[in-house]
Design goal:
The protein is an alpha/beta fold and about 290 residues long. It is globular, with a radius of gyration of 19 Å. The chain has a single domain, classed as Rossmann fold, CATH 3.40.50.150. The longest helix is centred in the first third of the chain and has 25 residues. Helices cover about 30% and strands about 20% of the residues. Strands 5, 6, 7, 8, 9, 10, 11 and 12 form an eight-stranded mixed sheet that branches. It has a two-stranded antiparallel ribbon with strand order 1-2.
């Protein structure tokens, strides 16, 4: 399903997603996978080119990548655990093909997730840990030309892949931002929705990142955490990359957030919406899950 790279739509219709492949369509799918793998390999190689911009293939205008990280700010050593949970390693950019794998819609129902976010035209969204832009592109379409999507990642190679695809799609309402392990470099009091899909459990400095995310939220803004269900052994993901709802509350509430909604209809993942506490609000004590 690498239509995210060279199609106007990243997600198939429900009818397309539910069609049982025949022998003919199975062959077509195999050929498409090979083609998609070659495209991603090319993008990975292109991402190694040190450039702050990616050319817009349709207009010739560059899609700017904000790489102005303040190198004078020290980053503390990464922790191995956070509130009793082992922190997972960040996916390397060479693993980008997994983000656009053919089976992702079927396994995770990405369209249903996007619908549950209730993204509206004109909103300002952050796709935190955007990778090569699997969700970024569709979020940009949903907020429309009056909206804006901040695509944040700590790997410039990922951002160059995203910028290349976004330029080819003609999407100009995306702002790729190179963040750090302690700062996503978002504007204060601006973000209507900060989306973290299978990303939060990889934060090497969770408290610092959550503080910056909290500052970035606009009035009524929400943080949407999507994590593979740690309570469900049937979800075929390593435990290191899963979280329970109890863990989410245990870690996010002391960081100044409170749960404002949950969506439980995704096949493998939790979708938990959190709002920022008002200054002075105290968080009730929680039991360690």
């Amino acid at each position: 399903m690498l239509t995210v790279c060279h199609s106007s739509r990243a997600f198939p219709t429900r009818h397309e997603a539910e069609v049982v492949p025949t022998a003919y369509t199975a062959v077509r799918m195999f050929v498409r996978r090979v083609h998609h793998a070659l495209v991603i390999a090319w993008l990975c190689l292109a991402a190694l080119v040190p450039s702050g911009n990616a050319a817009d293939a349709t207009s010739g205008r560059p899609l700017e990548i904000d790489t102005a990280v303040d190198a004078s700010i020290p980053i503390p050593p990464a922790a191995t655990h956070h509130r009793g949970r082992e922190i997972a390693q960040t996916m390397h950019f060479t693993g980008a093909p997994w983000l656009v794998r053919e089976s992702r819609q079927r396994e995770e129902d990405c369209r249903l997730l996007l619908d549950a976010l209730d993204v509206r035209p004109g909103q300002t969204i952050c796709d935190m840990g955007c990778g090569n832009g699997f969700y970024t592109l569709e979020l940009a379409r949903r907020v429309g030309p009056e909206g804006l999507v901040y695509a944040v990642d700590i790997q410039p190679e990922m951002l160059r892949m995203l910028a290349e695809v976004a330029s080819r799609e003609g999407l100009t309402n995306i702002r790729p931002v190179l963040g750090t392990a302690i700062d996503p470099r978002l504007p204060v009091a601006t973000i209507d929705l900060c989306l973290c899909v299978d990303v939060y459990h990889e934060f090497s400095h969770p408290d610092a990142m959550l503080a910056r995310v909290r500052e970035s939220l606009a009035d009524g803004g929400r943080l949407a955490l999507v994590e593979f269900r740690g309570e469900d052994p049937a979800v075929p993901i390593k435990p290191l990359h899963k979280m329970t709802k109890a863990q989410i509350r245990w870690e996010l509430e002391p960081a100044g957030f409170h749960v404002v909604g949950e969506f439980d209809r995704l096949p493998w993942q939790h979708l938990v919406f959190l709002g920022a506490n008002q200054p002075g609000n105290r968080v009730k004590s929680l039991e360690n899950p």
